[in-house]
Amino acid sequence: MLVHICCAVDSHYFLQKLREDYPHEKLIGFFYDPNIHPYSEYRLRLLEVERSCRQLGIDLIEGPYDTEAWLEAVRGLENEPEKGRRCSICFDRRFEVSAAKAAEMGERSYTSTLLTSPKKSLQQLRREGERLAAEYGLKFVAPDYRKASGTQEQNRLAKEARLYRQDYCGCLYGLNIQRDQQQKLADELFSPVSGQIQPESIEERLALYEKRIELEERGVAYRIVRERFLNWRLLSGLLKVKGRPTPAHILPYSTLKRGYTRGKIAERIGPLSYLNRDEVRLLTLQEYQKRLGRKIGSLTELIFAPPSFEEELAIRRSLCDGPYDLGTLLVVDEIPDGKIELRLESHTFEDVRERLILMSAAEEK
């Protein structure tokens, strides 16, 4: 039986129930989810499905990430609500590709872990699954594993297996609608031009869960804990000196109250030069390199290939008096002596991140 898999939280429970109910069937997982955006989130969910299937002894096939075809299929339905027409087309497409794959492999039946998702209509899924099964000469297996406290058992098993638990269905449209309703920034869709990994970004989570797998393979005990913190995202920035755009690198946690200011350098104290308004400070690339402890080729290199976020945060802390400073810090080649204009749009917000702790290190403390 080919089993279309949407995520590890659903599949870990669903596959175990299927094995109990169909003991003579060889189950083959099929991860086909071009609806998952961005790609780093897709990689993270696939990583967890691979881990779950290894634990359960289930073979897994990865389908194509044909996201452009998916986007074309749902064109015009971007603002549809959850369980609306966009979602119908989304799982219809995944069912069709899964049914075609099952027929290609010579399987007699197929099913999907979407059936156990509480966000999906079971009747709608069954109807479409059976239609495609008839078209491809298959049987669509559609058990209801939500009933009899199934959803609670699914959550228990996911927690026991320490699975990554995503907090949105998958696509960028649903994510934007969900974040708008929550009045939150859809920072999952942010990817800096510099490529720097941001705190509580999907890329940071992906690195954490890759590290977790490495630790498990080595037999190292660990825990993943959650912590609340102040997060930050840079949306845009532009520095002008005497009316001309001037290269500048913006350090993490820089904010500007009204998003725009102008003035002149009023004084220099130590490594910092102070604008005469709005808590804006500048330092030279030379001074930045001293605090970083290594040389950077140019300001352009710093802008497009900066050190890690943690390294830059350490530089900021070395320059600011206390951990609560949110004033703007800019790195420039030379401190300007003319009129300065600055546009800066950034966003600070309460957030929760996961942190991996090695138990041996924690016990030593």
Which residue ranges are poorly predicted, with pLDDT under 50 across at least 5 consecutive positions?
none
- Tally the beta strands: 14
As laid out across the biggest beta sheet, the strand order is 3-2-1-4-5
Mean pLDDT: 94
Question: What coarse outline follows from CA principal-axis ratios?
Answer: elongated
Question: What is the overall number of helices?
Answer: 12
The CATH class name of the largest domain reads Alpha Beta
> What class, by secondary structure content?
alpha/beta
Percent of residues in helical segments? 25-40%
- Relevant CATH superfamily of the largest domain: HUPs
Provide a descriptive summary of the structure in words.
The structure is a single chain. The protein is α/β, with parallel strands linked by helices. The chain folds into two domains: 188 residues, Rossmann fold; 122 residues, no CATH class. 40% of the residues lie in helices and 23% in strands. The strands form three sheets. Strands 3-2-1-4-5 form a five-stranded parallel beta sheet, with helices on both faces. A five-stranded mixed beta sheet has the order 8-13-12-11-10. A four-stranded antiparallel beta sheet has the order 7-6-14-9. Helix 1 packs parallel to helix 2, helix 1 packs across helix 6 and helix 4 packs parallel to helix 5. The longest helix has 21 residues. The mean pLDDT is 94.
